[in-house]
Design goal:
The strands form six sheets. Strands 17, 18, 21, 22, 24, 25 and 26 form a seven-stranded mixed beta sheet that branches. The protein has a four-stranded antiparallel beta sheet with strand order 4-1-8-7, covered by helices on one side. Strands 3-2-5-6 form a four-stranded antiparallel beta sheet. The chain has 548 residues and is of the alpha+beta class. The protein has twelve helices and 26 strands. The chain folds into three domains: 128 residues, C2 domain (Immunoglobulin-like), CATH 2.60.40.150; 135 residues, C2 domain (Immunoglobulin-like, Sandwich); 234 residues, von Willebrand factor, type A domain (Rossmann fold, 3-Layer(aba) Sandwich), CATH 3.40.50. Helices cover 22% and strands 33% of the residues.
C-alpha cells in the first residue's frame, strides 16, 4: 500500500495463453486423397465483426491432425473474448480461404477454454448446425514466468535531507534496451534515518525479466509532498547477488549520491541492507482456475423503495419495451463473464429491502425464486427469469442493508477455507441504487470477509450519491471497521453503472479488473496450491514424452 501519496507495486498485465489445436474424424472432402486441413483463429472485437488472428500450418492428407503451430493470445479475465476456430480443407495455393472446403467451426469464449484447460467439441456448420462429423480439441497453457522474489530491506545512517531527518523510500529498476524501467516502489517511512520497510513481493519478470544476472538499480529517495523527491543515493546489484542474503547473512550496499563523490571525505549516504531475498513460484489466477478452483457467484439485488414504482418508466426496476433496465444490464454484463468459471453455472440470487407476501415483512436477504431451501438459478438466463417473476410480487420498501447478505456469503466462504484447499472462491455482486443504512455493520462484515476467499463487487445504478460506496472500495488505504480493525486486503470493487453509457464491455472490464489479483493474492498468502496441481504436472510430463 502507498504511504503519503506514493503509489507502490506495478500495474496488472494480461496473461499470455498458448493454444494448441487438434482435430479428429474430419470429413474427407477429397476424392483421391484425404482432406488437407488447416485451422484459422478469429477473434470478435465488436458485435458481429470477426478478425483473423492467425492460422496453423496445413497438414496433407490427414483426418486427425495435430497442429504444430500454436496461437498465443492475451487473456483478460474481465472481458468476454469471443473466439472462433474454423477448419478448412486446403485445395489451392491462394491465401484466401473462401474457395477452400469448409470442414466446420467452434465458436466459444476464451474464458471457457481457460476454465476447462482442455475442451473437445463437435465441429459446427456456419448456420449453427452440426457438421456431421469431426471434433476439435483446444488446450490452453499460460506461458508467463510466475516466480516472485520476497524481499526484506532496511537501511542505516541515511543522510539527513531536512534538518534532523529524512522520509525515505526505495525504487527498484530493471535494465531494459531503452533504459531503466521502474519495477517496484516501497512505502515511505517518515522521520527515520534507519528505516525498515515492509516485506514485499515482486515478480521476476518485472524485476529482472526472469534473468537473475540482469542488473538492477535501487534508488533511495527522501519523499517530498510536491513530488520533487531528493535522491539520497543509489546502488546496482543483481538478483543472484541479493539471494546470498537468504543463505548467508544480510548483504549490505553502499548508498552513493553521485553529486557528493567530489568530496574528499565522502564515503556514502547510508547503507542499504538486503536482509532476505527468497525466490519462489507464485501461482497465478490461471494456475488456480486451470487447477480446478471454482468461482462461486452470488447476486444481491436492491429492492428498496428509492428505486421507484416498477410500473412507472422513471423507476430503475421498470422493464422497458426492449426488455431491459439497469439492473438487468448489470446482471448480463458481469454474469456472462463469471459464469464461464463455474462448472455448475448455478447461482444463488437474493433480494433485500422489500416487503414479502403474505406477511409483508421487510427482508434483507430473501431468495428471488422464493425457495429458501434452493435459492439457485440456472445460468444467467435463470437469474433474469427469476428477477422478472419476483418483481411484481414485491413491495419495494427499505432500508438499504448490505451486511446480512455479505455475512451470508462469508459464512459459506469460511467453511471452504477449513478444507485447506484453493478449490473455492466466492464473488458477491451487489446491485444497488442508494446510500447504505447499515454502514457500520457493513464495514465490520467487509473487514471480516477480507480474511476469507471472497470478493465483493458493487454496481451502483441510477444517479444517487455513491460516495459511501467509493469509501468501501478502499484502493488507497485499508478499510477500517468501527472498532478500528483494518481489513486484511481490499476485496471491494465499486463502479457506477451510468458512467459507462451503455458500453457493457467497458463496464465488465472495470467491474472485474481487480478480481484475478484478489483470487491469486489470497490463495498465495495462505500458501494454498491449486487443487489439481500434481495431476496437471504429471499430465504435462506425460504429454511432453508422448509428443517427443
Amino acid at each position: 500500500m502507498a504511504s503519503a501519496g506514493v503509489p507502490t507495486g506495478t500495474p496488472c498485465l494480461p496473461s499470455s495463453v498458448e493454444l494448441t489445436i487438434s482435430c479428429e474424424n474430419l470429413i474427407d472432402m477429397d476424392v483421391f486423397s484425404k482432406s488437407d486441413p488447416l485451422c484459422a483463429l478469429y477473434i470478435n472485437t465488436s458485435g458481429s465483426q470477426w478478425h483473423e488472428l492467425g492460422r496453423t500450418e496445413m497438414i496433407l492428407n490427414c483426418l486427425n491432425p495435430k497442429f504444430a503451430k500454436k496461437f498465443v493470445i492475451d487473456y483478460y479475465f474481465e472481458t468476454v473474448q469471443r473466439v472462433k476456430f474454423c477448419v478448412y480443407d486446403i485445395d489451392n495455393n491462394t491465401y484466401s480461404l473462401e474457395d477452400d472446403d469448409f470442414l466446420g467451426q467452434l465458436e466459444c469464449t476464451l474464458g471457457q477454454i481457460v476454465s476447462n484447460k482442455q475442451m473437445t467439441r463437435p465441429l459446427m456448420l456456419k448456420n449453427g448446425r452440426p457438421a456431421g462429423r469431426g471434433t476439435i480439441t483446444i488446450a490452453a497453457e499460460e506461458i508467463s514466468d510466475t516466480r516472485v522474489a520476497n524481499l526484506e530491506v532496511c537501511a542505516r545512517n541515511l543522510d539527513k535531507k531536512f534538518l534532523w531527518w529524512s522520509d525515505p523510500f526505495l525504487e527498484f529498476y530493471m535494465q531494459t534496451d531503452t533504459g531503466w524501467q521502474l519495477a517496484h516502489r516501497t512505502e515511505v517511512i517518515n522521520n527515520n534515518l534507519n528505516p525498515t520497510w515492509r516485506p514485499f513481493r515482486i515478480s521476476l519478470r518485472s524485476l529482472c525479466g526472469g534473468n537473475v544476472e540482469k542488473t538492477i538499480k535501487v534508488d533511495c529517495y527522501d519523499y517530498h509532498v510536491n513530488g520533487s523527491h531528493s535522491l539520497i543515493g543509489s546502488f546496482k546489484t543483481t538478483l543472484a547477488e541479493m539471494q546470498i542474503a537468504t543463505h548467508v547473512s544480510p548483504i549490505e550496499f553502499q548508498c552513493i549520491n553521485p553529486k557528493k563523490l567530489k568530496k574528499k571525505d565522502y564515503k556514502n549516504s547510508g547503507v542499504i541492507f538486503i536482509k532476505s531475498c527468497r525466490v519462489e513460484k507464485e501461482y497465478t489466477f490461471l494456475d488456480y482456475i486451470m487447477g480446478g478452483c471454482q468461482l462461486n457467484f452470488t447476486i444481491a439485488i436492491d429492492f428498496t423503495g428509492s428505486n421507484g414504482d416498477p410500473n412507472l418508466p422513471n423507476s430503475l426496476h421498470y422493464i422497458n419495451p426492449e426488455g431491459f433496465n439497469e439492473y438487468l444490464s448489470a446482471i448480463w454484463a458481469v454474469g456472462n463473464v463469471i459464469q464461464d468459471y463455474d462448472s455448475h453455472k448455478s447461482f444463488p440470487v437474493f433480494g433485500f429491502g422489500a416487503q414479502l407476501p403474505p406477511t409483508w415483512q421487510v427482508s434483507h436477504q430473501f431468495p428471488v425464486n422464493f425457495n429458501p431451501s434452493n435459492p439457485f438459478c440456472d445460468g444467467i438466463e435463470g437469474v433474469v427469469h427469476a428477477y422478472r417473476q419476483c418483481l411484481p410480487q414485491l413491495k419495494l420498501w427499505g432500508p438499504t442493508n448490505f451486511s446480512p447478505v455479505i455475512n451470508y456469503v462469508a459464512s459459506i466462504a469460511r467453511q471452504s477455507l477449513y478444507q485447506n484447499k484453493a478449490a473455492q472462491y466466492f464473488v458477491l455482486l451487489i446491485i444497488t441504487d442508494g446510500v447504505i443504512t447499515d454502514m457500520d455493520l457493513t464495514r465490520a462484515a467487509i473487514v471480516e470477509a477480507s480474511r476469507l476467499p471472497m470478493s465483493i463487487i458493487i454496481v451502483g445504478v441510477g444517479a444517487a450519491d455513491f460516495s459511501e460506496m467509493e469509501f468501501l472500495d478502499s484502493d488507497d488505504k485499508a478499510l477500517l471497521s468501527p472498532t478500528g480493525e483494518a481489513a486484511a486486503r481490499d476485496i471491494v470493487q465499486f463502479v457506477p453503472f451510468r458512467s459507462f453509457h451503455g458500453n457493457n464491455m467497458a463496464l465488465t472490464q472495470s467491474v472485474l479488473a481487480e478480481l484475478p489479483e484478489q483470487v491469486s493474492s489470497f490463495f498465495n498468502s495462505y500458501k494454498l496450491k491449486p487443487p489439481n496441481e500434481a495431476s496437471q504436472r504429471l499430465f504435462r510430463m506425460f504429454s511432453a514424452r508422448v509428443e517427443s
